[in-house]
Write a structure and sequence with these properties.
The protein is of the alpha/beta class and 279 residues long. Helices cover 48% and strands 19% of the residues. It is built from 12 helices and 9 strands. The chain has an 8-stranded mixed beta barrel, surrounded by 4 helices. Helix 7 links the parallel strand 5 and strand 6. Helix 1 crosses helix 3 and helix 4 runs parallel beside helix 6. The termini are far apart. It binds ligand C2E and calcium ion (3 copies). This is Diguanylate cyclase.
Length: 279
């Protein structure tokens, strides 16, 4: 399967020509990090715009290598998709995030949702639904609190099998979000057929709100479109009050962004969000 990120990777690889050693090192390191459980998840709160309260969090992968330093997921996820590690990473993330969410909900008597990013490549792999079902049974999370975020795919990858997979996940009680909406391939036709529950407006559109009139027009159109299709809307990357006001005015349901909180480690999320005390 092809993805935008795969293409980013190819661009990157073209720049890396003659640097195969570093490439191999990266693959070995990532493989080790996965095996030794040294990858981490950070969690960014998701806020209900009507009530102002936290309804859940998005799990975001963090990789700090002692030798290579911090590697952002935008950099190593496309690489993992290309070298075949992405499915193992996806399983690891699902297990880790659901385990953590279950602990938090049990400890604090909450019903927080946890959103996990899954590569289109992974979700298109046979056996994906069975794997998710196993992870749910294993971690005992309420499937109604699990969300899966998938980025837009090209029409070519949009098969009957994929629709069936999405339907099967939904019938388990899982919520499906279309991530990075507006940045990829999704046409209106695609959106009509793709059985998602939530549209996630990409940060780039949120940033445009303060830059002029067309920014607001775009946001307003995207939210109207989502609502016409009976989808809920999450806006990501909210940093300013002005952005928040525009989103609220146009009926956006949920927001994430630095205005509320950066993605936080387990300890910081526990202290700063759940215990509401400063560390
Ligand atoms: P995304 O899913 O669109 O995630 C949103 C990104 O925006 C995250 O970057 C987040 O830290 C950042 N962000 C959130 N709020 C703000 C804000 O107010 N301002 C700014 N400037 N940035 C904000 P991050 O964590 O570096 O992740 C980048 C991308 O890597 C993600 O984009 C996602 O596509 C991918 N990714 C991250 N974790 C995973 C994972 O576990 N699995 C997969 N397959 N992809 C992942
Ligand atoms: Ca996401
Ligand atoms: Ca995004
Ligand atoms: Ca993204």
């Amino acid at each position: 399967a092809k993805s935008t990120r795969g293409n980013q990777y190819k661009l990157y690889r073209a720049n890396m020509d003659g640097n195969t050693d570093k490439w191999l090192l990266l693959e070995t390191k990532l493989h080790q990090a996965l095996k030794n459980d040294t990858l981490e998840l950070h969690y960014q709160p998701k806020i209900d715009l009507k009530t102002g309260s936290i309804v859940g969090m998005e799990a975001l992968l963090r990789w700090n290598d002692p030798e290579l330093g911090y590697m952002p997921p935008d950099y190593f996820i496309p690489f993992a998709e290309e070298c075949g590690l992405i499915n193992d990473i996806g399983v690891w993330v699902l297990r880790k995030a659901t385990t953590q969410a279950h602990i938090w909900n049990q400890t604090y008597g909450l019903d927080l949702h946890v959103a996990v990013n899954i590569s289109p490549i992974h979700i298109s792999t046979g056996g994906f639904v069975d794997m998710v079902r196993e992870v749910i049974a294993e971690t005992k999370i309420n499937p109604n609190t699990l969300e899966i975020e998938i980025t837009e795919m090209s029409m070519l990858d949009y098969t009957e099998e994929l629709i069936q997979t999405i339907e099967d996940l939904k019938s388990l009680g899982i919520t499906i979000s279309l991530d990075d909406f507006g940045t990829g391939y999704a046409s209106l036709n695609y959106l009509k057929k793709f059985p998602v529950d939530i549209l996630k407006i990409d940060r780039a559109f949120v940033q445009d709100i303060v830059s002029g009139k067309s920014g607001i027009a775009m946001i307003s159109a995207m939210i109207s479109l989502a609502h016409a299709l009976e989808l809920k809307v999450v806006a990501e990357g909210v940093e300013q009050e002005e952005e928040l006001n525009v989103l609220r005015k146009h009926g956006c349901e949920f927001v994430q962004g630095y205005y509320f909180s950066k993605p936080l480690s387990v300890i910081d999320f526990t202290n700063e969000i759940l215990e509401k005390k400063d560390t």
